[in-house]
Write a structure and sequence with these properties.
The structure is a homodimer. Chain A has three domains: about 220 residues, Rossmann fold (3-Layer(aba) Sandwich), CATH 3.40.50.970; about 160 residues, Rossmann fold (3-Layer(aba) Sandwich); about 100 residues, Rossmann fold (3-Layer(aba) Sandwich). By secondary structure, chain A is an alpha/beta fold. In chain A, the strands form three sheets. A seven-stranded mixed β-sheet of chain A has the order 7-6-8-9-11-10-15, sandwiched between helices. In chain A, strands 1-2-3-5-4 form a five-stranded parallel β-sheet, sandwiched between helices. In chain A, α2 packs across α4 and α6 runs parallel beside α7. The radius of gyration of chain A is 25 Å and the shape is elongated. In chain A, β16, α19 and β17 form a beta-alpha-beta unit. The longest helix of chain A has 15 residues. Chain A starts with a helix and ends in a 5-residue tail after the last helix.
């Protein structure tokens, strides 16, 4: 298709774009998270592949949300039918999917850094080619883009950044950079030439402007104004069926009763069912932009000033603020509560987004408390308990829950652990989180750990009563719950056989949670 | 002293400042890392405490390097004699040391985020007071400061940021923001009023400007130009005695032989003995500024473009780029080599800087290789080996070494593991890194693991030959080497008693490496 595209005359490009758009909409009709973001850059995508000699010229996208049209015209139109399903293509850019996907992009704000790397590699090789990054206005709020612009500003190189400004990222874009004049001042202060294109959905104008920009040398930004179509919203879960829904319900009560609580989120409220809360409690819910390090330290600042700070974040993005959790919160023993959404396999978003690393690193940090509820009832009990004990906390508390369905039956009280089955077995199954509600091992006793760190004091006693401990854990790596139990045994005189079922040391592709849990052996 | 300060007339402040400076220099004469940074802001520090009602008014410093004068005039003058020694005060800002240390600051670029948190907490409580962050021009290159400025720019609040511009941070400051006009454009584009003060070492002028600025509302930046005195450099290690020195020596040879290798560092070359290499190979060593996320992704970009990227970074700052290691390098199977300096206890810098977390999280990431040399000879062998195998790597390789003395005797070849002692014991001591060279256990066999991940295939066989495995590990947490061996045993039929000696689950204060290793039981 790309050869056909390049054979066209400029006046034929708009029809071509419309056809591509229609076909893409048709093919991904049922599953359309973020499809609007891609459709907004349909003309830009066509124009870029028309004027560039990709993949020899380097085109780097920021976040995969912009990538559906790109995928369609680089040989993956038919594959879109099976995007985000097992064996199908990814919803994001992915290097091993196509040479046209020069750099993977699941998380935001990385593209200009990658562009800097290409400039540096090409300088050593004296390799001349066009190098372009396309970054959305939402991604631009991530500090890494500033770091990259500021660094590239000092390098004598040719690089083009296209700011795709559709005035809104996943959530409402936050920040002051919301008009041409501010953007212009901003980029110029960092050493970049600034151009703008008001007609970002007119492919002919785009082609002309891009062709002109490519003839200029140096570091240039083209600020392209695009418009997102309004598609019908993607299918969402029914009320009262997910961890997200139960979390939002309980938080509504907690916020109303505790007007000093402030919840910060780096653009993740909408994806978690917290949008209505934001409308109802505008003084208490703050969307800070795509900027996890800032958000976590700002929460520490609230706590240092005697406020009640909560952070709402996805597990995969907590990876971006590990140092801030350690340095600003845990070390300073500040009472910040984290709602860690999408802990565990995340489903169709795939390997860039699985929340499988946070448990491992959180358990390694002193002064940290970690809770994993098994269902909606326990989640709500934990939220209530957290709001009660926040003043006494000496460090962060993390309440982790998956993107999964769950029920919420009769209210329960918070308990550090609970026996789900206790007979006379000499083998104990120890699990945590939602896996506790699925696990069925006929021949074993079964305890659910709501609190994974600190390990409940009773766990030591519990271990002494069994010959074999089987750990079931939706997490990666050498540590986590299994590592914590292994260390407990190592520091004791106990002679216990430890058996561990957790996620293998490989990146896991996309698929439904159920499929992935079965494939990794966590579900029978 | 602060009461005495506030009783002075403005014209008496310069004498006061000179006396404080002289006494501080006298007291910290022998150990003066970064003392110049504090002396450069002596007048600013005096002026701030003079016009503000600290600690009720909030004063947040960015990085502790600016904090010695602040400590002196807030009741810790005498304690400076014992700064950075066991039982003495910290070299950085620290909340539990004084109510005047409102927010801890060991790592850079966090102050404006903390300031944002204070503004948010005060808004809820309707608390009126002055709120100020002082940030150096070097710290400003960290993207978190941009995130914070951009977010605060949208909030209706009173906040003052003082940019302390002494034209140079730890290492040479990088970036384009190097003149008044660019700084002005930059701050204004993010919604901040901009003022400047050329006479940043004139306390009377500073007082007048600060008093005026405090009467204005809104978000304001004062860009203060300060001058650093030139003190004699701190005592450094003798050539040929440290891991750092041997690393730099070998890298000199490798860089000369491999002109395509590029080493990126976020302002850490100078602290690691790499400054001479930078002079000799300016095309191959790039100081990118204080911006670890960008640096790591830029290295991924170099690799994606077919270049040979190395990253030079301290363990404690690698925490800031964990997501970039996972998302941009490991997941994409890109061959980037990391020189992880200051792995393990870091000595007098203390808990903000100990490199005790990286091993735990690196071992949890798929496609990662981790090497820990026991001495200078093995470090050099690993660097040579790394440069040879870089094209075949399918993911990042981390070579971790401590801030410690070591020797470099006859050259050795790279080996995944090595028996240091082998008799007929049924107990095996398994250690890695420099601890292998100290460990002496009469009754045990002893193997050193140069490669911790992937665990050498022979380790499985090795485990089967012993009843007890003792792990000795300079790292925190539930995972790491001990977790990896525990998982290996859990996935086998072996009946082995595991004994683990590693760092307890608490933050460790400052002290010499030797003292800290003894105190934590890692050295006898």
């Amino acid at each position: 298709m790309i050869t056909a595209l390049r054979a066209l005359e400029p006046h034929e490009l708009q029809d071509f774009t419309e056809e591509v758009k229609s076909e893409v909409i048709l093919r991904v009709k049922e599953k359309i998270p973020h499809l609007e973001s891609s459709l907004a850059v349909a003309e830009l995508t066509v124009a870029l592949h028309y004027v560039l000699n990709t993949p020899e010229d380097v085109l780097i996208w920021d976040v995969g949300h912009q990538g559906y049209i790109h995928k369609a015209i680089t040989g993956r139109m038919k594959s879109l039918n099976h995007q985000r399903t097992p064996g199908g293509i990814s919803g994001f850019l992915k290097r091993d999917e196509s040479p046209f996907d020069f750099f993977g992009a699941g998380h935001a704000s990385t593209s200009i850094s990658a562009l800097a790397g290409v400039c540096m590699a090409d300088a050593i090789k004296k390799h001349k080619r066009h190098r372009i990054a396309v970054v959305g206005d939402g991604s631009l709020t991530g500090g890494q883009t500033f770091e990259a612009l500021n660094h590239l500003g000092t390098i004598d190189t040719d690089a083009l950044v296209i700011l795709n400004d559709n005035d809104g990222s996943i959530d409402q874009t936050i920040g002051v950079l919301h008009n041409y004049q501010n953007y212009q001042s901003y980029f110029k202060s960092l050493g970049w030439e600034y151009h703008r294109c008001e007609e970002g959905n007119d492919v002919t104008i785009l082609v002309a402007q891009l062709q002109q920009a490519l003839t200029l040398g140096g570091k240039r930004v083209i600020h392209v104004k695009t418009t997102r179509p309004d598609l019908s919203p993607p299918k969402s879960y029914k009320p009262g069926t997910t961890f997200q829904w139960w979390a939002a319900e309980e938080m509504g009560l907690i916020l109303a009763a505790n007007p000093e609580i402030q919840i910060l989120s780096s653009a993740m409220f909408a994806g978690s069912g917290f949008a209505p809360l934001r409308v109802k409690h505008p003084q208490q819910l703050h969307d800070t932009g795509i900027n996890e390090p800032h958000t976590v330290t700002a929460a520490a600042g609230i706590a240092a000033a005697g406020g009640k700070a909560w952070v709402h974040i996805y597990s995969t993005f907590l990876q971006r603020a590990m140092d801030q959790v350690i340095h600003d919160i845990a070390l300073q023993e500040l009472p910040v509560i984290f709602l860690v959404d999408r802990a565990g396999f995340v489903g169709s978003d795939g390997p860039t987004h699985h929340g499988v690393f946070d448990l491992g690193f959180l358990l390694d940090i002193p002064n940290v408390t970690v809770w994993n509820p098994m269902d909606g009832s326990e989640l709500q009990a934990m939220l209530r308990k957290a709001s009660e004990i926040q003043p006494e906390l000496r460090g962060p508390l993390f309440i982790r829950y998956p993107k999964a369905r769950t029920s919420c039956d009769s209210p329960v009280d918070f308990m550090e652990y609970r026996f789900l089955k206790k007979g006379h077995s000499n083998t104990l199954l120890l699990s945590s989180g939602v896996l506790s509600s699925f696990a069925k091992e006929e021949a074993m006793d079964h305890a659910h750990l709501g609190q994974v760190k600190p390990l409940p004091a009773d766990v030591k006693r519990m271990l002494g009563q069994y010959q074999t401990i089987v750990i079931l854990e939706e997490s990666m790596g050498t540590g986590g719950l299994s590592g914590a139990v292994a260390m407990e045994i190592a520091h004791s005189d106990l002679d216990i056989k430890l058996v561990v079922r957790k996620i293998n040391d490989v990146f896991t592709e996309h698929g439904s949670r159920h499929e992935l849990l079965k494939a990794t052996g966590l579900l029978p």
